[in-house]
Design goal:
The structure holds 3 protein chains of 3 kinds.
Chain A lengths: L4 H21 L3 H26 L3 H28 L16
Helix pairs in contact in A: 1-2, 2-3
Chain B lengths: L1 H6 L9 H23 L3 H21 L3 H26 L15 H23 L18 H11 L3 H22 L19 H8 L9 H9 L3 H9 L9 H5 L1
Helix pairs in contact in B: 2-3, 3-4, 3-10, 4-9
Chain C lengths: L20 H19 L6 H27 L7 E3 L4 E3 L1 H28 L5 H18 L3 H19 L6 H32 L4 H10 L6 H18 L7 H8 L2 H26 L4 H24 L4 H22 L2 H28 L15 H4 L1 H15 L5 H15 L3 H26 L8 H4 L3 H12 L1 H6 L4 H11 L11 H17 L3 H19 L10 H19 L2 H11 L4
The chains are: A mainly alpha, B mainly alpha, C mainly alpha.
Chain lengths: ~100, ~260, ~600
């Protein structure tokens, strides 16, 4: 690894923060879900960078599992989104205001 | 962020130039894509931003000599997950732009920004002080010094150390399948089914909205089709810069 | 680590399937039901799918007890790790397996009653329950952060779908979406915490982390601290600890009632098991850093849960805030970070899961066929309509309040003792004050159920039109309520006008949305796609509504399965409330083995 680890972790933290920021400011459910994917990818960068530094394959294996989890989660998540919004065109959470208090 | 990078600029001394260039390019791609995801009003554009960011992550993996993970990253994320996103966007006929200017909770946005900045700077500062007291360099070894290279090492690791998680993914897929079945098969009722699942496009106000002047340029059907059809992430990245706009497309066209 | 990875040949670790047999049984049960459903022409009936679920859960329960006896037999020396160190079989994991599988039994019974009231044949609900329970067990048994993450995801994905189970009802869909987005967010935070911890310690194995931290003194431990903070935040989201609790009331209110009960029990069990396993056992040498954080979170959680529950008028929301309050109590045990604390937390989790599921069993029956009569007003005079329901709920609520001779008393006593033992007396005082506040709102519901006074306001004349009774009594009982919510008295008019359309039965506080829904239906009818059909269904629905909604003294039908579920919870609460010995002994034995 010739680029120092700090750079990778810095990039990863910035990406994680951007994902979290997007999740907090956007109201579109699909875009919010994409932001979660960004956060997972930030973790992936960190895993691989650490694994390279640690000379350990564990980080790569973790990325492998994260990919699996992300795929499964997206399937179910988008399934829920489709099931709910099939009747309603606008996928923003602002439309969801049945429950308050 | 730049402050952090400046602090560690000295760490760059050992960096060889080509790697530094690749890293800089990849970081730029990732950040550009991420910015695209969170600022684009049209979800299709956000999805394309996501593809760009994921492509950048794959570049980072390549830089770290994880060819296999880079390939998997592109195949699974760009090839499956983002296509799924685009499919859902098209299926729902999301042709209305989100009104970003409207804040649903007053003061939520600055608060979010402050919180995230605080957390990110906190992590960076904590991490910067650490000098990565990375201990316990595991005996498993890394990709390069093992017979068979990275793929073999990964496979070996998954079938030994991570055998249980690997098998647990089976349960994960079972539950994902079950969830998909539940959400799509309908209510499975014996009686009293309330049939109110008329598609979105049937609603009159919706139609008028998509015929209105504001929405004619929003629907990027062409872009979506190109993403689904394109094989490599490189093409995807180029597609996004020349988004094909289909004027006058309505939500009904997507529905049908 | 496995030496095999350095060799060219692959040496697969010894596969000790008995180590994960409870999980395998649960997943196997789900697969069996799936297989039968897909092979036979018609779907498996709710009773038989419930039966198989209960059988699978009982077998898992039996095996967990067997495992527990095995690993605790020789003073805890027979605990072991399996699958190359990624899973631990000790008293802790097998006791959590016992708790989870007994929750599945109760949940399966509740779900059967709900499915029947809904007129649905849907064995998938039971399958989802089984598999997500396996995820919670995996979280407790995990000895590797990756396994914890996978268990968390298996559990959460199942719960997302269960929350969405009634997705045609707006609230259910909304609950599922909120749960999904915030659950995904917390999973991502948790995962990032794993990544940072991995970077700081060089391994994701919990035993490896513990031994690394015990052998090394980190001069710069910032990375580990950041990782710990993110792990804590991620898990606090899952267990609904304040300030990460914001999803809980909406999700609890919107989800189908049995799913809510199951979610309240199993998500807390899994989340707290992971919290205990990661923080107390793996990061135990860093307790000086994480304990203060948990103290603050626990105090905020206790106060928020108790205070917010006071102002709720929806029973499910009230129970949601009360479960947040309970989470604060369990955090007390976690923060103590001692043997006594872990044992108290385990005991609390065990009895809490029965209390909360028993409460939601009653709530799901009172909620009626459309599962939406959850306002406090629907509980007025419940004693007259169904003494059994009223008494069961009373028992569950006084147990949650921590009245002596119920399990809740010992649970609260144990965590308080542990907290004082860890010299955090101020937190114990805060907890006791919130317990007193909580007792107030539990008793308020109890008094309401047993009140014989005729309901105030305009309820009496409305008895003739049962469909309107709910709306009127809620408007009448809480005069400030209607105007407090979305609009003024004009909205109440809207409310009532809408109320006689059976398409959407009015729940208080959603007058505006009901109006919108009404208009929507009207327009749909006008479009005339299947207007005739729609009309018929509406009438049919109205007829049904009359039967279920009649609060004028008619008895409420309790499905046998739900009755059994309530009986199990009630017997458990009373029996182990009077004789707490066996459970406390079990919890004490379980903590000696934590590694």
């Amino acid at each position: 690894m010739t680029v120092s680890l700090q750079w990778y972790i810095g990039l990863s933290v910035v990406l994680f923060g951007m994902g979290a920021l997007g999740l907090l400011i956007r109201r579109n459910v699909l875009v919010m879900y994409m932001c979660i994917e960004l956060m997972l990818n930030a973790a992936n960068i960190a895993f691989v960078a650490f694994a390279e530094k640690l000379n350990d394959i564990g980080g790569q294996a973790a990325v492998f599992f994260v990919l699996v989890v992300a795929a499964a989660e997206v399937v179910v998540g988008l399934g829920i989104v489709v099931a709910i919004f099939r009747r309603r065109p606008d996928t923003t959470v602002d439309d969801l205001h049945m429950m308050k208090g | 962020m730049t402050g952090f990078l400046a602090i560690h600029a000295s760490a760059m001394v050992a960096t060889t130039l080509p790697d530094a260039i690749v890293f800089a390019v990849a970081a730029l791609i990732i950040l550009a894509g991420a910015v695209g995801v969170i600022v684009e009003r049209n979800p299709v554009h956000s999805a394309l931003g996501l593809v760009i960011a994921l492509f950048g992550v794959a570049l980072i993996f390549l830089l770290l000599k994880d060819d296999f993970l880079a390939a998997v990253q592109i195949i699974v994320y760009a090839g499956a997950i983002v296509v799924l996103f685009l499919f859902v966007i098209m299926f729902l006929g999301v042709d209305k732009r989100e009104v970003i200017a409207r804040e649903s909770l007053r003061g939520q946005r600055p608060l979010a920004l402050a919180l995230v900045l605080l957390a990110a700077v906190g992590i960076l500062l904590l991490g910067a002080g650490a000098h990565y007291a990375l201990g316990a360099s595991a005996a498993t070894g890394t990709a390069t010094n093992q017979p068979g290279g990275e793929v073999a090492a990964l496979g070996r690791s998954i079938f030994t150390t991570y055998l249980l998680p690997f098998e647990a993914t089976a349960a994960l897929f079972i539950i994902a399948i079950l969830g998909a079945v539940v959400l799509t098969k309908g209510r499975g009722t014996l009686s009293q089914e309330r049939r109110e699942d008329s598609p979105a496009g049937d609603e009159p106000d919706d139609v008028s909205m998509s015929d209105g002047p504001g929405s004619s340029e929003d629907l990027d059907v062409g872009a979506g089709e190109q993403v689904e059809g394109s094989g490599s992430a490189g093409e995807v990245a180029s597609v996004s810069t020349s988004v094909v706009r289909v004027p006058g497309a309505t939500s009904q066209e997507v529905e049908e | 680590m496995m030496a095999g990875t350095l060799l060219a040949t692959l040496t697969i670790p010894h596969l000790d399937y008995t180590a994960v047999l409870p999980e395998i049984i649960l997943v196997g049960g789900a697969l069996f039901i799936m297989l039968v459903t897909s092979l036979s022409r018609k779907s498996m009936g709710t009773v038989s799918s419930m039966g198989w679920t209960v059988v699978a859960a009982c077998v898992a329960l039996g095996f967990s007890i067997y495992q527990w006896v095995g690993v605790t037999a020789h003073g805890g020396h027979s605990a072991y790790v399996a699958f190359g160190g990624s899973i631990a079989v000790d008293g802790f994991s097998s006791m959590v397996a016992v708790i989870v599988s007994s929750s599945v039994v109760v949940a399966a019974l509740m779900e059967e009653g709900w499915l029947r009231r809904q007129g649905r044949v849907s064995p998938e609900m039971h399958m989802l329950t089984l598999v997500s329970a396996a995820g919670a067990m995996l979280m407790a048994a995990a000895n590797d952060l990756i396994v914890v993450f996978l268990g968390l995801e298996i559990m959460s994905i199942g719960l997302y779908v269960l929350a969405a189970y009634d997705y045609r009802r707006k609230e259910s869909g909304e609950a599922a979406l909120k749960y999904l987005i915030l659950g995904g967010f917390s999973s991502a935070i948790f995962l990032y915490g794993i990544a940072l911890t991995y970077g700081a310690t060089g391994t994701t194995n919990l035993a490896g982390i513990a031994s690394y931290l015990s052998r090394n003194i980190l001069l710069h431990d910032g990375l580990l601290l950041a990782g710990m903070a993110l792990l804590l935040v991620g898990l606090c989201f899952k267990v609904a600890a304040a300030p990460f609790h914001l999803w809980a009331p909406d999700v609890y209110q919107g989800s189908p009632s049995p799913a809510t009960g199951y979610m309240a029990a199993v998500a807390k069990i899994g989340g707290f098991a992971a919290l205990l396993r990661i923080f107390v056992s793996a990061l135990g040498s860093y307790r000086a850093d994480w304990q203060p954080a948990i103290w603050v979170i626990a105090a905020v959680t206790l106060v928020v849960g108790a205070v917010m529950a006071l102002v709720q008028t929806d029973v499910k929301r009230m129970l949601a805030y009360s479960s947040i309050n309970h989470a604060g109590f369990i955090l007390l045990g976690v923060a103590a970070a001692s043997t006594a604390g872990v044992s108290a937390s385990l005991y609390y989790l065990f009895v809490y899961s029965f209390m909360v599921m028993g409460s939601f069993a009653v709530v799901s029956v009172v909620g009626g066929s459309s599962d939406d009569a959850h306002s406090l007003a629907s509980y007025r005079g419940l004693h007259r309509r169904s003494p059994w329901l009223a008494w069961t709920l009373t028992l569950m609520l006084i147990a949650q309040a921590g009245i002596p001779f119920t399990t809740g008393f010992m649970a609260k006593l144990e965590v308080l003792t542990a907290s004082i033992g860890a010299h955090v007396t101020w937190l114990a005082v805060v907890a006791m004050v919130t317990a007193a506040v909580a007792a107030f709102f539990y008793l308020r519901v109890v008094l309401l159920m047993f009140s014989t006074a005729p309901a105030s306001g305009g309820v009496a004349p409305m008895e003739a039109i049962p469909a309107v009774v709910g709306a009127m009594s809620s408007a009448g009982t809480f005069p400030g309520k209607a105007s407090y919510e979305d609009g003024g008295p004009s909205e109440v008019g809207e409310y009532l006008r809408v109320a006689d359309t059976p398409a959407d039965y009015p729940v208080e506080g959603v007058a505006y949305d009901i109006g919108a829904g009404y208009r929507y239906d009207q327009r749909k009818g006008a479009e005339g796609e299947d207007g005739g059909d729609g009309g018929e269904e509406l009438v049919l629905h109205g007829g049904e509504m009359d039967g279920d909604r009649d609060s004028g003294g008619e008895a409420i039908y309790i499905a046998p399965s739900v009755g059994v579920a309530m009986a199990i919870c009630a017997c458990f609460t009373v029996f182990f409330g009077i004789i707490p010995g066996p459970l406390t002994t079990m919890a004490h034995a379980a903590t000696m083995l934590i590694r």
